[in-house]
Amino acid sequence: MTKSARTKDKRTGWLGWLGQVVAWLVILSVGTVIILSVIAPRIGGGTPYTILTGSMMPSMPPGTLAVTRVVPIDEIGVGSVITYQLESGKPTVVTHRVVSTGFNGKGEHIFYTQGDANNAVDKMPVLPAQIQGRLWYKVPYLGYVNTLISGKGRDITMVAVVSFLLMYSAYMFSSAVRDRARKSRELAMQRVRS
Hints:
Elements: H1 3-44, E1 46-50, E2 65-69, E3 81-85, E4 93-103, E5 109-114, E6 131-139, H2 142-148, H3 152-193
């Protein structure tokens, strides 16, 4: 092997290694995002929501992905963070902390909530029928990604990411096979010359 070929091999080796590290970091990051925002909620029976306001700061700043799970009402108490409908049957939801519980005039269990950053308890008590779930886990800023890839966009993104990962795996496999074959040829050539 000539001196220039060895130098080129060293540069390619170092740059190749750096490229692989960056590629694996990207793959791991994308995989983590998919697991936390799509797969884990589906497997665990959770629902992902994005925190849009600062009412739950500092623990949940805007953009936080909050994943909730349905739990029995008797497992929700003071200190629980719940996601609930502002009006029963309506799609608009809020995620706030339960600050007290009680019963209304009809004997129904009710929950009083408040955002961690708010100075006052929310005006309307929450009925069990309004509760969508109790906080399971949260990931800061991942909610922005969840908002960007919702509905059909989420399915398209999943297909695109999985396709990319499969193509990258195939590329890495074929590169490894090609490199091994090249090294075998070089060794064979060196033996012939000796």
